[in-house]
Amino acid sequence: MHEILVRRVQHPVGQGGFHMADMRVANKPFRYIYDCGSGNPGTIGILLKGLRRSTGEKAFDWLVISSFDMDHCNGVALLLADGYTFKRVFLPHSLDNKLLVWLLCCYVLDGRSLAEIRDALTSLWVLRTLSEQFDRDGDGPDDLLERIDPDPAKPNAPNVTYHVKGADWMFRFYSRETNHADLVKTLFAKVEFAELKKVMERAAKTVSGKAANPRVTEKILTALFDALDNPPKPAQACNGAAPSGPSVKKLLGKAYQNLTEDDARVFGDYNEVSLCLYSGPCTSGQSADSRFSVERNVGYHFDYDARDWTRRVGWLGLGDIGFRNRASLDELALYYRAELALSCTKMVPHHGAQSNYGKHLAMLQPFFALDAARTLWIAAAYPLTRYRHPAGVVVLESAMNGTFVMVSDDPGSRIEETIRSIPALALSGSGVRYLIHLLRKAGYR
Q: What is the top-level taxon of the source organism (predicted)?
């Protein structure tokens, strides 16, 4: 069994999220980023300058985007401009290219300035281009990962699991949309989206990922606003004027709410289709006997909560996922039933927004109850924005069921965790205990 070293960091970018992890297995690197967006994209530019990574350290294997809200993905163009590369991009939707671009663009338009919209189009075009570069999942014979139980009929389905070859580590994706893929396809056939689709099909053909032509962009945006019958026009949007009439986001959310199956509502809103990711020890097999050490630097507190001889070192990113009812909570808990127990660090869904759990935290309390051991709960948020995330009641409930930390735009709120696998035959006390454990399993007393 190969030794593992994982260094993962939740970077301070304010309202948004930027999780970066570097892993070495048998001296081979594997790197990934989960979300790279901020309500203030300038913080990402400042962050990248401060990281000062070499060219080799900027070569990443995965980029995982949990949601197409801009505070989760508007740093993509900045990453690429700074020399970062990715072998594989995971997106929260399995749509054809034209519909994907249409969804991404229309979802972020409301209330944005023309400059913000143009930047969004650039980032989203890059994501679309990157996602088309892969026939499968980068799990060839010479790669570090192997995909478990691949479904040839769904080569891009988000709900997949990867094991690190010869090592006690795995990655597991989850999206509720995948469980209802056929139902979601009907969403984009609705007549109210027909005009928007025509406009975004044009956008998919004409908007360049490197330098969008301002005139072309303005024409596309004008057509969008006309199709929505939703002023202001782009020129007015530059002044930050609020749009009137139904917004695209509300239109999309209403369409999700109207999706039914067997006369039951499936989705409460768009947030419920966020792409989640578990990264941590394997949940079954012979590797279950191995152990790890974990060290944390939480904000200004160094050597925080260091632990040895444990398997509970996993990390769980939950995007903006919401628990509209107990059934949706149980669905996630059933899928991650083993991973919840092995995760010592979890991202609070939707930056700690109370709206994800209903009134009086009715859905949040059973979520915490699923986890028997104390957890480090992290909210990537900035409460001084108009969203006011995280909600005070979410902070209190998190602190009662573990430790709550907010990663804002303050550099001192950065969280770094280092996980090391413990060699089975190390001459430390933990290694001796492990050897005794193996002997007892073999029948020696």
A: Bacteria
The DSSP-derived string for 311-360 is S--EEEE-TT---SSHHHHHHHHHHTTTHHHHEEEEEPGGGG-GGGG-GG
List, for residues 242-260, the tens digit of each pLDDT value. Answer: 334 445 556 666 777 777 7
Q: Which amino acid is at 263?
A: D
Contact call for residues 187 and 298 (beta carbons, < 8 A): no
| The pLDDT of residue 89 | 79
Q: What percent of the chain has pLDDT over 70?
A: 60
* pLDDT < 70 stretches in the chain: 93-142, 149-158, 178-179, 181, 184-185, 187-253, 262-263, 286-288, 300-305, 358-364, 366, 424-445
Q: Which amino acid would we find at residue 371?
A: D
The answer to whether 224 touches 199, Cβ cutoff 8 Å, is yes
Count of residues for the chain? 445
Distance (Å, whole) CA 432 – CA 427: 6
Q: Are 26 and 394 in contact (CB under 8 A)?
A: no
Q: With the CA atoms of 133, 139, 140 and 146 taken in that order, what torsion angle do they form, in degrees rounded to the nearest 10? A: -170
Contact 80, 49 (CB under 8 A): no
Task: List beta partners, residue 296.
Answer: 304, 417
> In degrees, to the nearest 5, what angle opens at C-alpha 269 toward C-alphas 160 and 107?
85
- Rounded CA-CA distance 376/353 in Å is 17
Integer CA distances (angstroms), 118 to 45, 125, 142, 227, in order: 17, 11, 39, 18
Q: What pLDDT, on a 0 to 100 scale, did the predictor assign at position 2? A: 86
Q: With beta carbons less than 8 A apart as the criterion, state whether 106 and 68 touch.
A: no
Residue among 270, 273, 340, 275 nearest 34 (CA): 275
Residue with tokens 């027909």: 194
What Cα–Cα distance (Å) separates residue 72 from each residue in 21, 42, 432, 434?
16, 14, 45, 42
